[in-house]
Amino acid sequence: ATCGHGCKYGECMGPNKCKCFPGFTGKTCNQDLNECGLKPRPCEHRCMNTHGSYKCYCLNGYMLMPDGTCASSRTCAMVNCQYGCEEVKGEVQCLCPSGGLQLGPNGRTCIDIDECSTGKALCSYNRRCVNTFGSYYCKCQLGYELKYVSGRYDCVDVNECVTTTHRCNLHAECLNTEGSFKCKCKQGYQGTGFDCA
């Protein structure tokens, strides 16, 4: 398909036939479509045309809902919720944006639930729980590091003897263990392994 005149905001579908992208119109798709003039109107209260799109606005005392409608926000504004609210049977309830948060005693602000201490967190045996605001994540236990092994990420034991993160005495041998290491004084020396004499 060739369009001798070109298609500015669209694509050529046949001989000199343009298919315009949403928000544009005209033979060469070079004109902005005024969505505010369409029937049915896209916005309940006020509509503002923009290049290739449009914006909805609500009258004072109303708030814009995701579907473009306007809902009375007088009651919501009065409650002064931290993260927004919903109206159920005329009652205003503040909302928290994640399951890891709960409404605080004042009914307006959200406080964190520590999933690590409440036992709600699920981490595999070689990972430890780290609490975050509104959630948590699982981190490798101390002495383990995250590595990509046979197609998946796993916590693998760190060999402290190879990485020289051990503090064994000059006259001691380093022995790697699962998640840790041990120091053993060499023959002819005695002590903890950290101190050998």
UniProtKB/TrEMBL annotation:
InterPro entries: EGF, EGF-like_Ca-bd_dom, EGF-type_Asp/Asn_hydroxyl_site, EGF_Ca-bd_CS, Growth_fac_rcpt_cys_sf, Nephronectin_domain, NOTCH1_EGF-like. It is found in: Secreted, Extracellular space, Extracellular matrix. GO terms for molecular function: calcium ion binding. Residues 32-71, 112-150, 157-195 form the EGF-like domain. GO terms for biological process: cell adhesion; cell differentiation. Belongs to the nephronectin family. This is EGFL6 protein. It comes from Serilophus lunatus.
